[in-house]
Amino acid sequence: MTNMQNIKAGPVPGGLRNIEIGRLLLEGRAFFALIVIVAVFSALSPNYFTLGNFLTMASHVAIFGILAVGMLLVILNGGIDLSVGSTLGLCGVVAGFLMQGVTVGGYTLYPPVWVVAVLTCVFGALIGLVNGVLVARFKVPAFVATLGVMYVARGAALLITNGLTYNNLGGKPALGNTGFDWLGFNHVFSVPIGVIVLAVIAIVANVVLARTAFGRWLYASGGNERAAELAGVPVKRVQVSVYALSGLCAAIAGLILSSQLTSAGPTAGLSYELTAIAAVVIGGAALTGGRGTLRGTMLGAFVIGFLSDGLVIVGISSYWQTVFTGAVIVLAVLLNAVQYKRRPKKLPKNAVPA
Amino acid sequence: MSEAFEPGVVLAARDIVKTYGATRALKGVNFEIHRGKVTTLFGENGAGKSTLMKILSGVTTPTSGEIVLDGTPVTFASTVDARDRGVSIIHQELSLAPNMSVRDNIFLGREIRTATGVDYAEETRQAAALMRELEEDIDPATPVEELRLGQQQIVEIARALSVNARILIMDEPTSALSASEVEVLFKVIRDLTSRGVSIVYISHHLEEALQITDYAVVLRDGAMTATADRSAIDLEWIVRHMVGEHYDRGSPPTGYAFGDVALSVSGASVEDKNKGVLLVDNLSLDVRAGEIVCIYGLMGAGRTELLESIAGRVPLVGGDVRLLNRSLNGLSIAQRIDRGLVLVPEDRQRDGLVQTMSVGENLTLASIASFVRNLLTQPGKEKSIVQDSIRDVHIKTAGGKAAIGSLSGGNQQKVVIGKMLATGPKVILLDEPSRGIDIGAKAEVFRLLAEKASQGLAVVYSTSEVQECLSVAHRIIVMSKGRITAEFGPDVSKEDIMAASGEAVVH
């Protein structure tokens, strides 16, 4: 057919090659943006391009990055999770609460740190499950459901702590619950544990998205839920799962953050959900679902992290940082619109016979 | 309102050609609309009726050819432009805002403004006047959602009249109306024509259309095949020109014996929850392995509801569906696919394809388990499955990685069919598998079904095109109002099928 002949047509003319470069720039925009950011700040400050600084920045990125992985799953499904910032805060508080000892029937139990970590993760996943059930079973719009859970979780964190902060997370050797600072302060070959956790989560998520049936189901139900359902995809189960996974990611991020800060406060993670959404969007994912990659989201998280830390290092006021971050997000969404609008338009051009 | 008008041509289409990609939807159509007369367009699905109407009402522009309005060539820049020149269209799906009142709908987008806002009093007065003209007792303040469908149609007409439409295009206006509402509509149409308004009427109900029309124009495969005065034609004439005799769409596969009953539906009923009426009414049907059954019926006959309830998408309120003598009641869509029952849905874009995924990913979506080992997909195996599928159902594509949107409608349909065939089904249901695909692709789809049936697959497909009943089906079942009204062998005549569907009574 004409269609195929055009696709197979001989040598690529020069004009087309320019278009290819344009498309490469467009599709790899987060990557190029990251390179530009690193280059500009390295030129502006001698402290920026050092191993130590990169590791520090990476450990900042770890928190947003982990949230962004969970957010990507939700956004690929065509939803949104506004509750992750609050879930992060509440999970930190729950961990802090458990570290203070749990009084059961007159005895005070001090669970070891790994038990605290596991319980906190389960708790975070349960909060996500609530979101998922609200959205999938009760058909509450994702925006509203997670907005509600966002308030409830933040309120619960304030109630548990009575508005105060748990400052004593160190534990006592005699009680066998030391080591909470491990996540935030330890290094493996001088790489912070938080960054390693992010890397592990990212790799696992990438394999899940690219190589498992669940990943395929997720892309399909985000792209066209009705078609996916008719093809036998368990769309409800997928939907519930992504919110639970997002809650789990928020709990892990909460543990790392409170470990880094050696304190668990009820206001931790305020508005982090927006940063996570921004990372996903900068990474090229479509908010309508079905389109987006883990690689892009990670680049998005690093663009935001390296940009804001760079602005701090060169001494630009935090007010300006906010303005810059906002501008980058708008630019990213603008480019998303350009990218997704272009594709279908190309087809008729090819298809029209000469 | 008794102004005299000259009978004659008010709007004419000259040599209209419209191409979408490689598809020629209209191949040089000439078409005239007479002042104060009803002109009916006849044609099967995909014949080009809606494309022509879209061009006449400014929704889209022709690739070549011209539109002549009152003797002067014109180009409609948009529907608003066409409306301003007196051409209005009432679409099959009503375009009213159900939450707003009759008055607000009539003046939507062209509110009568004063210095301080909208002149609601004047709008109400004019809306009430329009309702009186149409002899409908509807309060302009009533929210549209509280009106019956027929009354909503009247509101649409009122809206068209409120901009002084001289030419009114009605696309399937009666498909959702009751018999008495159709009477009201016809009275309104006669009233309008007596005032000089020209009507273009499109309907699948041939008899109904013959009651109201003055001129008949028949389209087939994008070309006009006949045009005549009402007095010169009858039903047989329309059917002959609509369907044509020239095209062979295959014959039922022979040379093998049918197997056991693969699909058994008994006493199935499906309810429309909003209206409390039965869309499928106590229907029973057996299909054997290797058999091809065609379900013919008009829009609203309950074909889609029947197929979707068998596939598990909509619940049955009564009855039983059995596959290979095991009950499917209560099973999910996914479980039914596992047992060997699959559905190819009617609306390819909405229910069949995931536009964000490639051809290959769409093809394997229903059978991912076949290439997953240790939780991971095996790309090599997937690739070979995709290539086999592409060969098996004859998809013309640059490869499995191609974007699904790069395929033609016919090839997209083959992807949806191939996707369900890849699950290794025992029974395949296809809801209007030929909808919106060109004639060559239709033949290929039916050839594919015949081939699979001869290998033991039980095939059930629905259609609203009578010619397609007479292609590969061993048995033709006619549905009307949720029931089976007739059952024929492959040698039945078109007229008998149409008569049984309630579409036409041929003597």
Automatic annotation (TrEMBL), chain A:
Its main location: membrane. The keyword Transmembrane applies. It holds the Pfam family BPD_transp_2. The keyword Cell membrane applies. It is a multi-pass membrane protein. It comes from the Bacteria. Keywords: Cell inner membrane, Cell membrane, Membrane, Transmembrane, Transmembrane helix, Transport. PANTHER family: ABC TRANSPORTER PERMEASE PROTEIN YPHD-RELATED (PTHR32196:SF21), ABC TRANSPORTER PERMEASE PROTEIN YPHD-RELATED-RELATED (PTHR32196). This is ABC transporter permease. It comes from Rhizosaccharibacter radicis.
From TrEMBL, chain B:
Residues 11-246, 265-506 form the ABC transporter domain. Transmembrane segments: none annotated. This is Sugar ABC transporter ATP-binding protein. Keywords: ATP-binding, Cell membrane, Membrane, Nucleotide-binding, Repeat, Sugar transport, Translocase, Transport. CDD domains: ABC_Carb_Monos_I (cd03216), ABC_Carb_Monos_II (cd03215). InterPro entries: AAA+_ATPase, ABC_carbohydrate_import_ATPase, ABC_transporter-like_ATP-bd, ABC_transporter-like_CS, P-loop_NTPase. It comes from Rhizosaccharibacter radicis. The keyword Repeat applies. Pfam families: ABC_tran. One of its GO terms (molecular function) is ATP binding. PANTHER family: CARBOHYDRATE TRANSPORT ATP-BINDING PROTEIN MG119-RELATED (PTHR43790), D-ALLOSE IMPORT ATP-BINDING PROTEIN ALSA-RELATED (PTHR43790:SF3).
